[in-house]
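Reopening this ticket.

The earlier resolution said the output was attached, but the attachment link was broken on my side. Pasting everything inline this time so it's all in one place.
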Amino acid sequence: MDKKIYQFLEKVRSQLDQNLDYESRRYLDKNILERRLDGLHLDEQTLNKVKQLNEKISDLCVEFSKNCNEESTKFSFTKQQLDGVNENFLNSLPKDNDGNYVVSLKYPVYYPIMKECRVPETRRKLNIAFDSRCLKENTQIFEQVLQLRKELAGLLGFGNFSEYKLKLLCAENPQNVDSFLNKLAEKMRILQKREVELLLEYKQKECDELKIPFDGKINPSDLKYYLNMREKKEFKVDHTKLQEYFPLDVVIDGTFKIYQTLLSLKFEEVLDAPKYHEELKLYKVTDSETNKIIGYFYTDLHPRDGKYGHAAVFGLREGTKLGDQIPVCIMVCNFTKPTADQPSLLTHDEVETFFHEFGHVMHQICTKTNYYKFAGTAVETDFVEAPSQMLENWCWEKESLKMLSAHYKDGSSIDEQLVEDLIKSKNSANGHFNMRQILFAKMDQYFHTTNEKICTADIYKQYCKEYMLQELEADGLNMNASFEHLVGGYESQYYSYLWSEVYSEDMFQTRFKKEGILNPKTGLDYRKCILEPGGSLDAKQMVTNFLGREPNEEAFLKAKGADF
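Inline output:
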């Protein structure tokens, strides 16, 4: 942060106003506002305090993430303790010296067990451990970060940290976010209560069959299990069978074909590429019409100790027209590794994750901006998920699902009935899923708007009861100790996942659903109107250009099953 550069930018902006193109004016305006948000308009003493606070916050966030990446809790369970879990999945787990299965809390291990294990005590034990990850190390760090952010916002002249963070975003202020979340929560609560009644029926029936007490509640460790049971029994969705049709290589191949068709691109693997681990692959991206190379992307798809534990895309080099520089990025995921007996098989959720993250890759690669500042996904945070969220719809359409699937043993096509049952189940857990997102968004906003001293574990307990209608299953649990979003760029902005869906659903329903999900003309419009501009235009303007009108929330509420 250099005050002289800030002052120079202000001077240049006023002197060159009439001679600048739109993107250059935007570049200067954004830089000037961001430098003000950095505190460069303040006196030297206050500015030094701002710098010190930012350095402290940054160091603490790095430490928080390091602790999450190094989390390595493991349990040993007998086969009886994992009763109901997919045999193929069990065979992929390592075993201890006694022949018991070693279970970690990594996503590809934890979630399948929580969905399928019939033993309540096993699920309860894992759920408690999951919400205890990094509890001792990170709770204090996170609460210290919240306090420092509050101080920072005050020095910069804001009432709270959320006011400060939302200054550059579509939502503009915390009041708009709160209003949006409250309106959605009101509708989602109706769906959630209906779901609870149905899940309790399933639970009571199973408790009677197993001759175990029925407590009349859907506990946190019950939720995924009974949602999965309902999908199987009511919608006939067999996720174990479904998974056999989603070997990772087939999903990759199908995803590539869809994106290449839709966006008029060609992908080609680069052999002998430089890489930091042997599992990485590098691909070259070429424009189909011009045969010009427009970018490169890496994939890193399986878990390793010390590796980033979620799914994300990271820019390695930004693309710019002025510098004639093509972009390079990497897609990092954590899908189950192949075994000697079978390839890596993805759940449908993981297929959706792959397709979503690859949407971010395309956002990075297709960029055509003059300034790296606006390249790729450098858009408003409450819009950045919209392009990828829109593309998740391809994982729920018959035509594209067939391209993404083939049985891992014989390459046979996915059963038509399986696909139909899956599509019918799409909104079966909308109430719970969206209330969970609202819980996280509300908690995030509370942390960054309140002036009270915060105990994050108490707030988590309170909000679980209020939004998920659940009591935690042990004292002192705190998922915030491993909630990397709130230290990794989404602080005060977790609402963005829901906010951006307003745009994503409008784009899909208005154009692709009507004109064809593999329509190259619509795809090219999407590439030119949404992906290529990056952050060089306001998000709302880009969506308006693509739709031919201003966006609205009708398609969003319809997609949620909440258009009532």
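Reporter confirms the inline version is readable. The longest strand covers residues 293-300. The first helix runs from residue 3 to 16.
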